Amino acid sequence: MCGIVGYIGPKSVDSVLLVGLTRLEYRGYDSAGVAVVHNGELQIRKERGKIKDLEELLQSHPVEGHMGIGHTRWATHGEPNRRNAHPHSDSKRRIAVAHNGIIENHYELREELKREGHVFQSDTDTEVIPHLVEEELKKGVDIEEAVYLAIRKLRGRYAFVLVYEGTPERIFFARDGSPLVFGSGKGETFLASDLPAIIPAAKEHYIIENEEWGWITRDRLHLFNGDRREKTVALEKITMDVKDLDKGGFEHFMLKEIFEQPGVLRRIIQERLGDNSGKVSISEKASEMQKLSRLSRIIITSAGTSWHAALVGKLYFERFAKISTEVDLSSEFRYRNPIAEGDTKVVAISQSGETADTIASIYEAKAKFLRVLSFVNNTSSTIARESDAFVDLLAGPEIGVASTKAYTAQLLNLLLYSAFLGGVKWILDKDERQQLFDEVRRLPDQMDQILERADVIKEWAKDFKETKDFVFLGRSFNHPTALEGALKLKEVSYIHASGYAGGEFKHGPIALITDQVPVVCIAPQGDIYEKMLSNIEEVRARKGIIISIHTEGDETVPSLSDYSFPIPACSEVLSPLLAVVPLQLLAYYVAVERGCEPDQPRNLAKSVTVE
Ligand code: G6P
Predict the structure, then answer these.
(1) Does 2 participate in catalysis according to the annotation?
(2) What's the 33 CA to ligand 1 centre distance in angstroms?
(3) Is 570 in the active site?
(4) How many angstroms separate the alpha carbon of residue 362 from the centre of ligand 1?
């Protein structure tokens, strides 16, 4: 949800900013821009569209210099056009600002500033920031004071970077709610929304906290708190590897990440079950034994794909630890004023760790004195830091906007954590755990077998190029798989798709079925198998096109299907981890067939940092 970057150093600033912005493009790609100060002059270039459009503009209209800021936008206020592209400037074009987040009181600030004679060029909330700083400067204060006074007038969630013609070699910044990281390299410094934008040049980093502000110079970070007291900064080494940020020979990140899943599962298994003791290794803080043995209720809060993982997580917590579990969409959590009674834990699930609604639900939980455990892929994220403890998903950087490997990593970590709780609460004995873990250890190879047959689905995709609607059906552990399969397809191919619990099908969705509608039926062997057969028959009777996901060796489901894809035999509880993979491939290949851009679907952003 908007990416920002700032650089001071010996390199040509435009190339550094373009690399950084490209790595942040997962946060939004409606427009992009840079502002550079060189020889006391501010130069701004911005363009509608993606970073490559900005790059073309910079070729025809180059900028020169060694200090500047950049922005890639996911539009909140104002159309995604060039006028609304960041950076935004003040009336005299001496100050430029790139911002991520929302300034909630921008209407009233804008009116006040207009009364003082400021003329606005865009429809954005951001533009009030350079005008506010300009207004303070007019009163005769210096730039540090002006930035500080401007920040004090802002309400909302934000991170911004600011350059000013009058201060070469200084980039100002402030954070309250949206992520911002400082990076330090050899004779150069950086600011960015996320670490991938600044590696490998930045070797050490500091995560800017809420209400901190200050400026960077070529050699250091000058950091202040809300009372203007300077803070000492302890830099940490950056361990992220730049190799994880390229496509590794795949056409798209989405496909690469789908294929990375067996490796991710192996990593989680090694980390959590590696010592073969029959115990799950979970970070110390996440495993405070005494309290956990009394735990009687879990509320899971999350959004998007992470919400689907939560739905599976509920079934795991209830099955393996006998803990009553509720699942909330994080955007809805606070509206129902959740009851904080008994020994309740809130579990937040998030790939990015920066989803604004999920962060808000954590604050809501903490206000009710509930303890929060998060499952996050980005362990330096706001969610990881605001939670009492976190479990690292260990999926590695996920760049494709549609989440794939983080989802299966969420499922496996939730499964293992629920087995861990089951052990703590004496629900699962050692043999039962061992049996489950033996099966878990087979998952990566089983997933490899599915991926070896990816070309089957690639072929199918040709038949669905013109399809208008899809329906996905699943039950029990695979009801969330149906929801996730439908979401994936919608996200990347723009085909309308809905997922339903098989049992609900006859209560409405069945009215959608014609001979033009493919119905994906997730029907592995297990308790729900026969019920799913009934669903398949219901679709057949109405001439719907049946695409089935079934257990290898089963002949009945394929005989009733138009398209069928086998997954290796596994227990029903583990089947969501395998059954989702062909659905991810289906979404990907259909998107490619339709000429869509699966890594950057229209209107979406990977990290949704506004509520
Ligand atoms: C966005 C992304 C989804 C993701 C959701 C929740 O909508 O496009 O892929 O599932 O946010 O994100 P989180 O990072 O909290 O898991």
Answers:
(1) yes
(2) 25
(3) no
(4) 16
Closest CA to 29 of 88, 85, 102, 87: 85
Q: For a pocket test of ligand 1, which of 307, 331, 352 has the largest count of ligand atoms closer than 8 A to its C-beta?
A: 352
What parts of the chain have a pLDDT lower than 50? none
Are 253-451 and 454-593 in the same CATH fold? Answer: yes
Question: What's the pLDDT score for residue 290?
Answer: 66
Closest CA to 146 of 90, 101, 185: 90
Overall size of the chain counted in residues: 611
Query: What pTM, to 2 d.p., does this model score?
Result: 0.89
CA of 494 to the centre of ligand 1 (A): 17
Q: Angle at CA 27, nearest 5°, toward 22 and 30? A: 80
Sheet (strand 88-89) strand order: 88-89, 95-103, 156-164, 171-176, 212-216, 221-224, 230-231
Q: What is the DSSP string of 110-143?
A: HHHHHHTT----SS-STTHHHHHHHHHHHTT--H
480 with 542: CB under 8 angstroms? no
Q: Which residue in the list 314, 345, 488, 606 is annotated as catalytic?
A: 606
Q: Which two tokens stand for residue 215?
A: 């400026």
Residue nearest (by alpha carbon) to ligand 1 atom 15 = 350
Return the residue whose CA atom lies nearest to atom 2 of ligand 1. 606
- How far apart CA 378 and CA 369 sit, in angstroms, is 25
Query: Could you identify the atom of ligand 1 that is nearest to the CA of residue 403?
Result: 9
Longest dimension (CA), the chain: 82
pLDDT in tens, 307-322: 999 999 999 999 999 9
**Rounded CA gap, 484 and 233, in Å?**
42
pLDDT for 65: 95
CATH topology of domain 454-593: Rossmann fold (3.40.50)
Helix (H) / strand (E) element for 382: namely helix 382-386
Instruction: Tell me the Ramachandran region of residue 183: left when phi exceeds 0, alpha when psi lies from -120 to 50, beta otherwise.
Output: beta
Residues 6+ apart with CB under 8 A from 313: 300, 325, 327, 347, 349, 410, 411, 414, 418
Please confirm whether the linkage preceding 200 is cis (ω < 30° from 0). yes
At the topology level, CATH places domain 253-451 in Rossmann fold (3.40.50)
Ligand 1 site residues (CB inside 6 A) read 303-306, 350-352, 355, 358, 401-403, 604, 606, 608
Question: Domain 3-241 adopts which CATH fold?
Answer: Glutamine Phosphoribosylpyrophosphate, subunit 1, domain 1 (3.60.20)
Cα of 29 vs centre of ligand 1, distance in Å, is 16
Backbone angles phi, psi at 391, to 5 degrees: -110, 125
276 burial type by CB count under 10 A (0-12 exposed, 13-18 middle, 19+ buried): exposed
